[in-house]
């Protein structure tokens, strides 16, 4: 009888140990929800996605990668607020607006910046409009409250005018081609890949680039603090693989290049043309932080934000420092 009891106890011990191990292994399983959008500044994230590099790099840590695709930054902010996205790539205005709204997110990096990714356009065959100087008393279309609006203001100021000297027309980004081609406005300010599409299809011509002003066009990696608190290693891997993808773009194989072009509804040649317009530092340095502060000041000036705050309070480069991203950055 004692022998049977001993056997039963031994069996129970083995089973309990197995169950404990199973629960422990299950507890180690994690997931990350990555929010992306087809902005040309984020070409490398689509490369990493098509290559499966982030999944591959996180496999040993038992992390499941979930991709979430959005059309623009504001819906990504809504997803953050609902706790549905963990890390996302977004522009300067959604970034600055997120902090102003009290969202518990932080800047963990800069996927891309590029003043020449923003441009003022005129109708291709409008010989009367060749410079912002030709726009006094004219209509300029942009997305009010966007980086395009910021550039429009900077260009108007540079050419000795004020916003009272032009008529600002609020449109959606997708309507730029329509308002230009139909003559509803004399100029429009927009960003890539819209600029390349409209110039290449003969609708528009560029009359000024962002680099003519102090605009930097800084985009960010935003991440939820509730996620980064216990998953900093995941953030570091994503930044590293993004840097790896950015380094790979110039010599990207044709199959992957075509897939990425399809993601953006562009041609491979257009992707090659767009990519050099961006710097991709991955780390958020003082220059990019200052650029985001400029965006904050702009939004306050047009009444979109109530008051200015210090953007640097929301920058956390520790995940970049803990990563191996530097090996891929020239």
Structure commentary:
With 330 residues, the protein is an alpha/beta fold. It has 13 helices and 10 strands. Helix 6 links the parallel strand 6 (139-142) and strand 7. The model is unreliable at 1-26 (pLDDT under 50).
Run of helices and strands: HEHHEHEHEEEHEHEHEEHHHHH
Report the biggest beta sheet as strand number plus sense, adding barrel if it closes: 5 strands, mixed
Q: Which strand order does the major sheet show?
A: 2-1-3-10-4
The coarse overall form would be globular
Classification by helices and strands: alpha/beta
In the predicted model, the low-confidence regions spanning at least 5 consecutive residues are 1-26
Helix percent band: 40-55%
Number of strands: 10
How many helices? The count is: 13
Distance between the termini: 74 Å
Whole-number radius of gyration?
Answer: 24 Å
Overall average residue pLDDT = 92
Strand content: 15-25%
